[in-house]
Design brief:
Subcellular location: Membrane
CATH class of the largest domain: Alpha Beta
Protein name: inositol-phosphate phosphatase
Radius of gyration: 26 Å
CATH superfamily of the largest domain: Fructose-1,6-Bisphosphatase, subunit A, domain 1
Number of helices: 10
Order of helices and strands: HEHEEHEHEEHEEEEEEHEHEHEEHEEEH
Strand order of the largest sheet: 4-6-7-8-9-10
Largest sheet: 6 strands, mixed
Main location: membrane
Structural class: alpha+beta
Number of strands: 19
EC number: 3.1.3.25
Distance between the termini: 97 Å
Family: Belongs to the inositol monophosphatase superfamily.
């Protein structure tokens, strides 16, 4: 054999190739890893855009809710019973609204976690944001409010107050969207389908709502659930006295709006309350939007023990709630003394 000739066996050739691949891998693995990390880091969402989409979704869902009710085509069925033994109803209005709202938000922000009260496999890939930002949002909120997409959880209630919806008590009905960032309610939208009014808020940035000029808590007007009340009446009367006015109403969204200054066009159909109390389990899609609205206006929504509610993870809030604005929230908590109940 020539002294310059090198002949590799098949095994040697294989080992040589593996060594070469290993060298290349080590050279480029770090580069690839860094580029993937950079790609993940730029997956952000502008919260002003998400607010605009949330408003559009709530209005679209509300259109479906109103249409089904006016056509009297509810097709209602039971989803089961609550812990209080109350039937949880599902109607065509719930489903049609869910499909519009869920698909619009999911298609626009596919990297964001979206939780809805309803579950349906109907996919509408054509559902797309109009790219229109309402004028009142443009006037009050600047763009560029970017946050990591994986820090965002969206909660949708396609039809709040379904029980009342089936009874044609439509003033209680709302559609709601809430955006939570790292578990804190940051954006809240509550749309009233049968009047067309939409309340929105972005915590720390602005809102189209405001508190009323005065509230009373000696005694208060307390708004409570008419269909999922549990022991709330006894709890409220024991805490604030027998002269307390109890307002029974449907829908968590409606109850939050009852605490706020409403446009004159809405006041004739709205109750006015000073505080909102709930003592049984309640789902986060029911309360997250209201929590954001109140927080943006200097108010509070906490558990009965005064704890902040985490709007991520499980959909169930087990600690009841106290909601207020314009009053001493800590004083309300002390009067309620939940450990007694």
């Amino acid at each position: 054999m020539s002294p310059m000739g090198i002949r590799l066996s098949p095994l040697g050739l294989a080992v040589f190739c593996l060594i070469g691949v290993g060298v290349i891998y080590h050279l480029y693995a770090g580069v690839i890893s860094n580029r993937l990390a950079a790609f993940r880091q730029i997956r952000t969402v502008d919260l002003r855009d998400l607010l605009a989409v949330s408003v559009e979704a709530a209005v679209l869902g509300g259109t479906e809710v109103k249409k089904v009710r006016e056509e009297n085509n509810l097709n209602e069925k039971s989803k089961g019973k609550t812990k209080e033994g109350v039937n949880e109803l599902l109607t065509l209005g719930d489903l049609q609204s869910h499909r519009k709202m869920f698909n619009l938000i999911s298609n626009t922000f596919p990297e964001v976690t979206v939780n809805s009260e309803e579950h349906d496999n109907t996919v509408d890939k054509a559902a797309a944001w109009s790219r229109v930002i309402p004028t009142d949002i443009l006037d009050k909120i600047e763009g560029g409010k970017d946050v990591p997409a994986d820090s965002v959880t969206v909660w949708i209630d396609p039809l709040d107050a379904t029980q009342e919806y089936t009874e044609n008590l439509v003033k209680f009905v709302t559609t709601m969207v809430c955006v939570a960032v790292d578990g804190k309610a940051v954006i809240g939208v509550i749309h009233v389908p049968f009047t067309g009014f939409t309340a929105w808020a972005f915590v720390g940035q602005g809102s189209n709502m405001s508190p009323r000029s005065s509230y009373s808590v000696s005694p208060p007007k307390a708004i409570v659930s008419r269909s999922h009340s549990g022991k709330v009446k006894g709890v409220v009367l024991e805490a604030f006295g027998n002269s307390t006015t109890l307002i029974e109403a449907g829908g968590a969204g409606y109850k939050v709006l009852s605490l706020l200054e409403m446009p004159s066009s809405e006041t004739s159909s709205m109750d006015q309350a000073d505080i909102y109390i709930h003592v049984t389990f309640i789902k986060k899609w029911d309360i997250c939007a209201g929590a954001a609205l109140l927080s943006a206006l200097g108010g509070h929504m906490t558990t009965l023990k005064g704890e902040d509610i985490d709007y991520s993870g499980t959909p169930v809030n087990e600690g009841g709630l106290v909601a207020s604005v314009g009053v001493d929230h800590e004083a309300l908590i002390k009067k309620l003394e939940p450990e007694k109940h």
